[in-house]
Amino acid sequence: MKNTMDLNLYRFLDLLLEQKSQVKVCHTLNISRATFNRHLADCRDIFSNELFIATKGIYEPTLFMTQLLSIVKEPLDQLEQAQQLSQSFTGDNVNFDFVFYAPSALSTLLTVPLLQGLSSPEHHPKISMVDWSLEGVEHPKSGTLSVGISGYPNDVSERIVERKVGSLALYLYVSECHSLASNATIELTDLEHIDTVRVSMGTLDDNSYYARLKKQTGIALTQKLTVASVFSALQCVKVSPYAFVCFHIDDGMLPCGVRRHPILLNGHKMSYDVGIQYHRACYQHPVVKEIEKMIADAIESL
């Protein structure tokens, strides 16, 4: 008896046991009679058993064949259902932890939507929101699904898949006593000589976004104050002449006395492209698709 067997031959034997006809099996599997005869010969050789006795075109199983299929029938059915089952994977039925790498400003916006989307009354997965790290995405820990969320695009290796998931409008946050507080909208040129507070982006904190902004617009923003969180930036804006450029922050989270104004470039609203990054091994996994939609929907709702 051979040690290996093509799994398709089990499907062949199962159909022959069920249909007992060469014609029907050939039609179902879309194979020729020569292929049918070859498959049956291979199976007989593998198991050193006749498997089926053909009488007037009817294939009756031997006792060995009946016992064999009683053993493999259940796992064979499970394998056939694998394609359908793979599409049913969701955040509340997978057995791994979620790690999201995102700068503070994006983490502030997306933590609650991701928590709500990945949790259910019966299932509370382990979710971690940490500073953005390309290395963390590129080398995920065993048992985790690691997803990066940051500005788009980034310089990533061939091991990383990066996709744009949306764009966020940019706003200026200033104290009601600031010289720009009375403006309905803010042109980017208005900020050229204004001191701004910025939020550190962890390992992404190389000022690449500001350099790209200067290259695209010719306008350089002056960041004289760097803080660790959006909350700290807003508190600094409240008590100082600094301005803060960020995404939409709900009124309920704004300190008293801080105002929000859309930022324009040549009369058009400015936006910040957002992308996600994940290891290529996760490409097209249903849960990754689910997460991508959660993020896109959250961004679109702002």
List keywords for this structure.
alpha/beta, 14 strands, seven-stranded mixed sheet, 38% helix, 302 residues, 10 helices, five-stranded mixed sheet
Tell me what you see in this structure:
The structure is a single chain. By secondary structure, this protein is an alpha/beta fold. The chain has helices at 7-19, 22-29, 33-47, 63-80, 82-86, 104-118, 134-138, 208-217, 230-239, 286-300; strands at 52-55, 58-61, 97-101, 127-130, 144-151, 160-169, 171-175, 186-187, 195-199, 222-227, 243-246, 258-265, 268-269, 271-279. The strands form 3 sheets. Strands 7, 8, 9, 10, 11, 12 and 13 form a 7-stranded mixed β-sheet that branches. A 5-stranded mixed β-sheet has the order 4-3-5-14-6. A two-stranded antiparallel sheet has the order 1-2. A hairpin with a 2-residue loop joins strand 12 (258-265) and strand 13 (268-269). Helix 1 (7-19) packs across helix 2 (22-29), helix 1 crosses helix 4 and helix 6 (104-118) crosses helix 10. The termini are far apart.
